């Protein structure tokens, strides 16, 4: 059996700068917080033995007592480093590869565990090493990037991109990609905590030092991702929380933007395809959202209404579908029951599910910021206004659950009638409408702009997540 995970990130840095950090194995914990300690017994050459221990206290202690040393099995200076550690009946192999591409470097991390206990060791040893890859890369960039002097001419400096709600999954994904591409990034944070990004304190609703600081920035781009997770029971109190956590920060940002001497250059305002309500019909950006749909659709309507596009020179409202990725919380929500044999269709199974792979969402967000979708790709110019950030091929719930069963390796699953799902939602602390409502959003604007999806089909998206 084999467990494996591969992920890549492009850096606007020469391979040599990244190699200086990667080749000092003792610095591994500096960019991967899952590693508590690491080191080599001698100089870095093939055959050198070394050790590492997880940062988690109990696993780290167990690893130090029982795990054998790893061996450096391959070294190609400036290009490739492979570490191999024996496991019962097999081994764990960690590979870091650097490939010069598009004026920078593509960094690829591969972790492979083989042997009869590969799946068990994958969960306990492999997953922590690969989790949060975007943030790992942001830390690696900070360690490898040379200290530079800002341009003397403020007008010549690149725009500062500020992310509100940037500590969540999508914010970390976008902030890390921008940082690794050489852009200046800052997060607006209610409770600053250690991390790879500069943070600016704010309360998410009133003006203060944060708005004065942003007002003094010559060139500014804003990405507003603020909002509590939608995945909670649809009580009146929770709906009020969801609304306030989106509307208040949006209004605060709009108010702050009006005090600036220069307009915000680019504003990317997050929204959700849930604004289209429960419908079997395909909805692109030309479709008028229903004005009377209750629940989450009403929350999203108020969220969009709080945004004033005149606050920026260019503004995009990203109506985002469910974003799929290994690190996204929604994946564990989808796969958890399926692993236990409850991966049958939900409700009738006929309801539509709109989705987008994280790699494509990231490319859409970059395009909305006026950047190329990814290194080496042609720029896509998006018009101002609403953009459905969703795959061109939504699927019905029956197909979604079939892919999930295949993904977790459990070929059969018990269906869950709507009544049972609603009854269990309170115990599971979730909103059954997220699974039972039919949302069939399609990306008309992206299609017209010539946007090329890497993962237009759900099967390909699940294959990538399992790679």
UniProtKB/TrEMBL annotation:
Domain spans labelled NAD-dependent epimerase/dehydratase: 163-369
InterPro entries recorded: DUF1731 (IPR013549), Epimerase_deHydtase (IPR001509), NAD(P)-bd_dom_sf (IPR036291), Polyketide_cyclase/dehydratase (IPR019587), START-like_dom_sf (IPR023393)
DUF1731 domain mapped to chain residues: 416-464
SUPFAM superfamilies per UniProt: Bet v1-like (SSF55961), NAD(P)-binding Rossmann-fold domains (SSF51735)
PANTHER family registered for this protein in UniProt: EPIMERASE FAMILY PROTEIN SDR39U1, SUGAR NUCLEOTIDE EPIMERASE RELATED
Protein name: DUF1731 domain-containing protein
Provenance organism: Sinomonas atrocyanea
């Amino acid at each position: 059996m084999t467990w494996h995970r591969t992920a890549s990130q492009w850096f606007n840095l020469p391979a040599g700068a990244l190699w200086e950090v990667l080749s000092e194995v003792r610095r591994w914990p500096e960019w991967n917080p899952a590693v508590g300690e690491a080191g080599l017994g001698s100089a870095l050459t093939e055959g050198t033995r070394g050790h590492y221990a997880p940062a988690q206290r109990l696993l780290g202690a167990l690893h130090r007592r029982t795990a054998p040393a790893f061996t450096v099995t391959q070294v190609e200076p400036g290009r490739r480093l492979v570490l191999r550690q024996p496991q019962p009946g097999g081994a764990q192999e960690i590979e870091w590869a650097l490939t010069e591409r598009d004026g920078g470097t593509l960094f690829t991390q591969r972790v492979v565990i083989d042997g009869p206990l590969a799946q068990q060791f994958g969960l306990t040893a492999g997953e922590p090493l690969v989790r949060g890859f975007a943030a790992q890369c942001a830390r690696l960039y900070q360690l490898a990037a040379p200290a530079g002097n800002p341009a003397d001419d403020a007008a010549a400096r690149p725009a500062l991109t500020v992310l509100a709600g940037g500590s969540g999954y999508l914010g970390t994904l976008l902030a890390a990609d921008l940082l690794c591409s050489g852009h200046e990034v800052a997060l607006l944070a209610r409770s600053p905590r250690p991390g790879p990004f500069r943070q600016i304190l704010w309360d998410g609703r009133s003006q203060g030092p944060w708005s004065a600081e942003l007002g003094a920035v010559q060139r500014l781009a804003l990405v507003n991702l603020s909002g509590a997770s939608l995945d909670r029971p649809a009580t009146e109190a929770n709906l009020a929380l969801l609304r306030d956590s989106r509307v208040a920060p949006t209004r605060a940002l709009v108010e702050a933007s009006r005090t600036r001497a220069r307009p915000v250059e680019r504003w990317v305002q997050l929204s959700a395809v849930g604004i289209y309500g429960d419908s079997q019909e395909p909805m692109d950006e030309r479709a008028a959202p229903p004005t009377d749909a209750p629940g989450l659709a009403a929350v999203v309507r108020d969220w969009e209404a709080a945004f004033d596009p005149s606050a920026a020179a260019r503004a995009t409202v990203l109506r985002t579908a469910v974003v799929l990725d290994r690190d996204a919380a929604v994946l564990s929500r989808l796969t958890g029951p399926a692993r236990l044999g409850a991966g049958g269709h939900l409700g009738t199974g006929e309801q539509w599910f709109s989705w987008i792979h994280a790699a494509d969402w990231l490319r859409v967000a970059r395009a909305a910021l006026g950047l190329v979708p990814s290194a080496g790709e042609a720029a896509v110019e998006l018009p101002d206004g609403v953009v459905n950030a969703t795959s061109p091929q939504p699927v019905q719930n029956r197909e979604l659950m079939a892919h999930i069963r295949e993904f977790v390796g459990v070929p059969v699953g018990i269906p869950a009638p709507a009544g049972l799902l609603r009854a269990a939602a309170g115990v599971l602390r979730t909103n059954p409408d997220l699974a039972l409502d039919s949302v069939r959003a399609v990306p008309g604007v992206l299609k017209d702009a010539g946007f090329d999806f890497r993962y237009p089909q759900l099967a390909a998206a699940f294959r990538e997540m399992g790679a």
